[in-house]
Amino acid sequence: MREDFLHHLWKFQKFDSEALKTSEEEDLLVLNPGNSNELSGPDFFNARIQIGKQLWAGNVEIHLKSSDWYSHQHEKDQNYDNVILHVVWEHNVEIFRKDGSCIPTLVLNGKVGEEILSSYTELIEKKHFRINCEKEFANFEDFQVEHWLERLYFERLESRSVQIDHILSSTGNNWEAALFIMLCRSFGLNLNGEAFMGMARSFDFKIVQKLAGERLLLESLFLGQSKLLTGDDKYAKELQKEYNFLKHKFSLRNYFLAQPQFFRLRPDNFPTIRLAQLAAVYSDRKDLLQDIINSSNLEDIYSLFDVEISEYWMEHYNFGKSHPPRKKKLTKAFVDLIILNSILPLKHYYSKYTGENNEELIQELISAIPVEKNSIIEIFEKLRPGTARNALHSQALLELKKEYCDLNKCLQCELGASLLKKSPKYI
Q: pTM to 2 decimals?
């Protein structure tokens, strides 16, 4: 038994509510269970309850055992002074207010039907192979799944907003610098994202702005700060020379920065190539932030990253060893990742910052991006073929798996909770 199950029972009144009595045998009638509180403080606000002939309005606190009130030290917290009812599964001790009066207690044990208890056990407590609701996932209504996935995607954007807020704070609210840091994270992918971000944070973004249009200098800056200027061919020496000049001019330091890794990466994802491509973007696009903010369709965004890598990198993946010339443009699939991980979160947060609402545009953009393919999406596709039809769905499913399924937060999930809502109150 978990406390969030008791929250669910109380919120939806899924128990025998006929002839309720408190632990002291006073008649109890629930007129309004109150509003669920997701923050600190009592679990439900603004409840209305009649005990005996007295009508009460206030807060409700829920615990597995009555003694949890003291374990959590609520008796010392003034936020709990207005609790009018203590809802528990096991009543093992009386609870008193600061003035010495006893807080009425409702015990739910014995008032909950076998069907809902069985559904709860099946969903939460039994061992499952993939996700808790795997037996029922294919049976959810299409509208219900679509609605929940849309909500999950915007939950994901909100969590990204917290990250963007931290980045903005670290840059003195410089939006262009924040974009640069986010793009570096995206260009580095999972393996080198943190190393690329460290490089981006290691100098003032104004240096990038001063070097705009100077691709060689931008390459020397990015590769030099990343400790990747290790070659001894002509181009490597030229970049090293420029980097030494920049290092002296701008007092650059990279002693404690992590060096990006090449291990198990496909050559097109080598950090040398990705940083050279990033240098090409910032060399060719002088107003990248504003262009991104103003973009209203995917083609506008794709065009911003349609850049040519410098000639040297068309024949090299790293310094020294050459290969037949080939263009190494940013692929559409790679730009899609940049859009998902950097551009859409930034556009969403920027619209909130400016007091606008661009949810419809964000939804339109992400729905036009093909569905991602990975092991997590495969789980849901095997359980319910056709669940993920575009990137909104795949991003939402990633959020669902990480923030709900893996944490057993089924009762906070619209789909999981609906399985218990179907159960009758009491049989």
A: 0.83
State the pairing for strand pair 44-51/28-32: antiparallel
Q: Residue 73: count other Cβ atoms within 10 Å of its Cβ.
A: 9
Model confidence pLDDT, tens digit, residues 20-78: 999 999 999 999 999 999 888 999 999 999 999 999 999 999 999 999 999 999 988 88
Amino acid making up residue 324: P
Residue pair 52/58 in contact (Cβ under 8 Å)? The answer is no
Residue range 244-291, pLDDT digits in tens:
999 999 999 999 999 999 999 999 999 999 999 999 999 999 899 999
- Name the token pair of 372: 């991602």
Dist CA 181 CA 187 (whole Å): 10
**Residue with the two structure tokens 């990248």:** 288
